[in-house]
Here is the input.
Amino acid sequence: MSAMTERTCGACSLCCKLPYVPELRKPIDTWCKHAAPGCGGCLIYPKRPRSCRDYICGWLSSEPGVGDEWFPAQCHMMLTPRRIGMRVTVDPDYPDAWLREPYYKQIRQWAQQKPVEIRIGWRWLWLNPDLPESEMPKIQKWLEGGRA
Here is the structure.
């Protein structure tokens, strides 16, 4: 994984909304009861669950090609570097955010080099280098940590 940069979360709390947190049984795309939206913080930060502690924000990391425009609270997307590839989780309140520029062009450029997954609510897209995106059917159990 990449080293962290000097960026800070600031007023962003999107990682408290979009992912599933199994230890808290927090569903995807809902605010965690311990979040402080708009204040950039977790009310239980020192005691936050392992899945929260282990999360690496692609904007906070020194992930190549992730500029200031990818600040999650501004772009309405959360980047998660994967061992192979990148996951783009789109806030379902802004489902077309990933199609806007400069994001779409950058996502397509990443897809030329590595797999890119895009999750928008229950939709799961896979970007292929030279083909249109394809939808991968996933069920709630799979999205929230289980296997179908």
